[in-house]
Specification:
By secondary structure, the protein is an alpha/beta fold. Helix content is 23%, strand content 21%. An 8-stranded mixed β-sheet has the order 1-2-3-4-5-6-7-8. Bound molecules: iron/sulfur cluster. The site of iron/sulfur cluster (SF4) has 12 residues, from loops.
Length: 193
């Protein structure tokens, strides 16, 4: 759908330079999705892996973030193998709703209520990032926190349009449950893609 060099705005690697590749296609159907244009894969152009690597290599990027859409609707074995062979770190942002493919240096699992993640990805996630839209989402977050590995980083992130209302609630929740950390979409505050 698009690719661009920017700063990672969310989660553990927030603030680090990263080359984003947004793949088209998503069948998860989050009501608050901010990239609904990604849902239909066929609407978007196709690029060869070589072409994408060449684009990334025009920048000093060390980290490539594969996002979507739901990137695991595609088999990512070849893509990630070639990116790693080119010396790039491969990161993914996924709902986990489709089988995991690819070789990853970092897996950010962001489960969605609209289509639950598949079990095998839970213990492989390096980071669990739960978007908080309303108070019932905290229970949802805890359910998945209990299923990931003990080393997995835990993040709560306010849904952007609800941020004014839910951020103070998240702050209090984290103060009471300090295993969680706050993730803000800082790219939206600093106006980068
Ligand atoms: S999984 Fe991501 S791209 Fe798909 S509907 Fe939800 S927020 Fe949008």
């Amino acid at each position: 759908m698009e690719h661009f060099y920017t700063l990672q705005g969310e989660g553990y690697h927030q603030g680090r330079a990263a080359y984003f590749i947004r793949l088209g296609g998503c069948d998860v159907g989050c009501v608050w999705c901010d990239v609904k244009d990604s849902w239909e894969a066929d609407k978007h152009p196709k690029y060869s892996i070589e072409c994408l690597i060449n684009q990334v290599k025009k920048t000093p990027a060390e980290m490539v973030v594969i996002t979507g859409g739901e990137p695991l609707m595609h088999n990512l074995d070849e893509l990630t193998e070639e990116f790693q062979a080119a010396g790039l770190k491969t990161h993914i942002e996924t709902s986990g709703a489709h089988p995991l493919s690819g070789q990853w240096d970092w897996i950010c699992l962001s489960p969605k209520k609209f289509k639950a993640p598949l079990k095998p990805i839970l213990h492989l996630a390096h980071e669990l990032k739960v978007v908080i839209f309303n108070k019932s989402d905290f229970d949802w977050a805890e359910k998945y926190a209990a299923s990931v590995s003990p080393a997995c980083k835990l993040y709560l992130q306010p849904e952007w349009d609800k941020a004014t209302q839910v951020t103070p609630v998240i702050i209090e929740y984290i103060k009471a449950n300090p295993q969680w950390e706050l993730s803000l979409q800082i790219h939206k505050y600093i106006n980068v893609p």
